[in-house]
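Collaborator request log, item 7. Partner lab (contact: R.S.) asked for a structural prediction of DUF2029 domain-containing protein to inform their binding assays.
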Amino acid sequence: MCAMSYFVELVDHRLTRLLTPARRDWLRSPRTLLLGFLGLHVLFLFALLPTILTGRVLGDLPLYRVWAEQALVNNVWQGIDVEWVYPIGAIVPIVLADAAGPLLYQLLWFVLTMALNGAAIGILTDWGRDRAGYRAAWFWLAFSLVLSPVGLLRLEGLSAPLVIMGLVLVARRPVVAAALLTAATWIKVWPAAVMLAVVAASRRRVSVLITGGLITAGIAAAVWAAGGLRFLTGFVTMQSDRALQLEAPVTTPWVWLAAMGQYGTTIYQNHAIATREVSGPGSAFAAAAMTPLMFLVIAGIFVLLLVALRRSRDNARLVLMGALALVTTFVVLNKVGSPQYMLWIAPVVAVGVANDWTHWRAPAYLSLVIGGLTTLIFPIFYLPLVHGDAGAILLLTLRNALLLVLLGWSVLALWRAAFAGSPASAFGRQRAGSRGLAAH
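Returned to partner:
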């Protein structure tokens, strides 16, 4: 942690010299933020324009478009007529992006992503009125740029801004927040970790639980009425028999062994699910052990949150620290590892930055570095990685090590809240200017 403190202070010192008071005021202008948002998304649009004009799609969107066409043309709905790898709510944006036909699928997906990003930026800054949220808004735009090769082409690009909005609104609009977080969870399951932190530490947990339960019951009833109840939880069971995926942190030792030519260790293509996996001595046991271990650690973090709740009056920070610890556990202890998983972490960090920059600057800097390394790994150096290139594996190892550091930082912060200091000062006094989650 000393090395991280040195890194944070070094970056802060450089930023302080670069961002003069006049430049800071300029960055906190609603007009500047709007221009930054529009400029970034115009850049994205120009990058996607050749794909849009030729009616093609990139990333995971070819598969999404096939599913949408199967639903709209052949009346075969994923998650209802057949078992599906995603929660049933994901079918809504996947089909919605096909509303203007398959040739405009890439354009409509971009519009959906831009609209949700705009809403997230608006809520982070209270539509330009809250200066405390500007730093968080710029962080989210910077992270969106760094991870754009996957953020624009995956479901996480839609679920992540929903989580930002939900976390900001928990205190003052718990029903709306619960609806947003529940919708995000039924698109991609990872926001369940954020919901768990809210249920554990938020003062509005009852409203969140009731709202989330009612929406989930409504979704289940709709799926039952459509005849697909037996597939409602298929997204859980379909992941259970997967092997170690190439980019998962736990897989890193086997990646090195494969690169060094260790007998029986190999990187191979799983054609059934279109991903790279790794096998070798002990890899099957590791793959089988990761899910139980992940849930064991999640249970431990949940207990730590409850203990910290008895000692700290700062529910807002507890929710955010718990959410970061839980979501990072989802990433670090997952036998499946994909570049878009970094979009699970950034929304929590963005809201943390909005509430208390001093406390959240370390994970903010770490997240940006992790995002940059992730984009270098995929798509830039992905083929060298698959072929065992040492430089590419070093990038992967560094990225995965930083994920472990981030998990350690968040768990340590919770530990200190639970067991260090007096009950009234476990986190210290809440900063003046905290907002969103901290408003009661």
